[in-house]
Specification:
With 335 residues, this protein is of the alpha/beta class. The chain has helices at residues 15-27, 65-71, 87-92, 95-115, 150-169, 191-201, 220-233, 250-260, 286-292, 301-314, 316-332; strands at residues 6-10, 31-36, 55-59, 77-80, 118-124, 173-178, 180-182, 206-208, 214-219, 239-242, 247-249, 269-271. It has a domain at 6-182 and 218-242: 3-Layer(aba) Sandwich (Rossmann fold). It contains eleven helices and twelve strands. β5, α5 and β6 (173-178) form a beta-alpha-beta unit. It binds nicotinamide-adenine-dinucleotide (NAD) and thymidine-5'-diphospho-beta-D-xylose. Nicotinamide-adenine-dinucleotide is lined by residues 10-11, 13-17, 36-39, 41-42, 61-63, 81-85, 100, 104, 122, 124, 155, 178, 180-181, 187.
Length: 335
């Protein structure tokens, strides 16, 4: 069992990173340093209410070696969430994805090598490519890498760097590849918050292609508890898949949102499909369940979604400043 007293959370002002920081505050005693560049996706407000005695926010870039030399020797572990994360943006401009996702991970690994620091890498199921809609198989830790988009290919590259730094230099690493997260504080560019906030603004939700694509949804709090289990109990050098058996067609997710929000379930627009759009993701999470005893707590997707709708309803000041420019960008892309 690895028992860190202090953890650096990169990307801790983003969606999942900030939920993980809150989870750590509520469930552990660790001291937390958040390293976040505050890109368009980062938000200081995501850490509002966390105790300053436990959490320190450092605004900076994971590619900044001098800053890493200051921060990394003072922590027992790094949990690395920081990344460019939106597939559509990666198609429009892949450059920041190569820099933050590949080079950023490289700089952190080098710092861990230098200071003997434990490293947990947060990755995605998208590194495995996609499955056919009528396929009954799911991704496992043994599935070959086959990423489709600029985003997922940079995440796959970063995973491979982590594996190499473990094998070649003996850096103490673990990797987790998780399915699609939903929950509070997710940027309005992403599918679920985009549709909820469209309805709240009186605009029509937008569905790509024919809506048959399948995503495997997990509540962000369940992702956080799984990451903690891998960090503290996972085997060094290993990969763990994280998922909560939450497969849903996009069309069905959208209809559930519309129904929960009191709208007609056909009250949306079909829009241009994403180029190279992955058809289906599905996670077999047997390894983390069996070896580490992890279980998701949010198993009722509709109930979880209703909670997220409430959060966006009650936190308009959080998302409204982002909404106009996100929709202007989508509109230029015909989406
Ligand atoms: P997000 O876009 O909401 O947040 C990313 C955060 O990283 C932001 O706060 C941003 O400011 C920060 N950041 C980006 N580049 C940086 C840099 N160079 N230096 C320092 N900080 C930087 O992302 P998210 O959805 O919370 O995803 C977090 C991680 O989880 C990513 O690694 C992503 O690949 C992975 N992941 C996400 C999902 C999902 O469904 N969202 C699923 C599986 C894995
Ligand atoms: O307006 C939309 N309409 C629509 O139909 C948007 C924004 C998306 N979609 C579709 C595309 C996908 O099939 O919804 C699905 C989910 O889209 P995103 O929220 O963009 O997520 P996805 O591309 O599946 O990737 C997400 O999960 C894996 C995260 O953004 C990644 O960071 C993570 O690695």
């Amino acid at each position: 069992m690895f028992e860190p007293n202090s953890v650096m959370v990169t990307g801790g002002a983003g969606f999942i990173g900030s939920n993980f920081v809150r989870w750590l505050v509520d469930n552990t005693d660790v001291r937390i340093v958040v390293l976040d560049k505050l890109t368009y996706a980062g938000n200081r407000g995501n850490l509002t209410g966390v105790p300053e005695s436990r959490v320190k926010l450092v605004v900076g870039d994971i590619c900044d070696d001098a800053l890493l030399d200051e921060l990394v020797p003072c922590v027992d572990a790094i949990v690395h969430f920081a990344a460019e994360t939106h597939n559509d943006n990666s198609i429009a401009d892949p450059a920041p994805f190569v820099s933050s996702n590949i080079e950023g991970t490289y700089h952190l690994l080098e710092a861990c090598r230098k200071y003997g620091t434990r490293f947990h890498h947060i990755s995605t199921d998208e590194v495995y490519g996609d499955l056919d809609l009528d396929d009954t198989t799911r991704f496992t830790e043994a599935t070959p890498y086959c990423p489709s988009s600029p985003y997922s290919s940079t995440k796959a590259a970063s995973d491979l760097l982590v594996r190499a730094w473990h094998r070649t230099y003996g850096v103490a690493t673990t990797i987790s590849n998780c399915s699609n997260n939903y929950g509070p504080r997710q940027h309005v560019e992403k599918f679920i918050p985009r549709q909820i906030t469209n309805v709240l603004c009186g605009a029509r939700p937008k569905l790509y292609g024919d809506g048959s694509n399948v995503r495997d949804w997990i509540h962000v709090d369940d992702h956080s508890s799984a990451v903690w289990d891998v960090l503290t109990k996972g085997r060094l050098g290993d990969t763990y898949l994280i998922g909560a058996d939450g497969e849903q067609r996009n069309l069905d997710v959208l209809r559930t949102i519309l129904t929960l929000m009191g709208k007609d379930s056909d009250d949306f627009d079909w829009v241009r499909d994403r180029p190279g759009h992955d058809r289906r993701y599905a996670i077999d999470a047997s390894k983390i369940r069996t070896e580490l005893g992890w279980r998701p707590r949010h198993v009722d997707f509709e109930e979880g979604l209703a909670g997220v709708i409430d959060w966006y309803r009650e936190n308009e000041s959080w998302w409204m400043p982002l909404k106009e420019s996100v929709e202007a960008t989508y509109s230029m892309r015909g989406q």
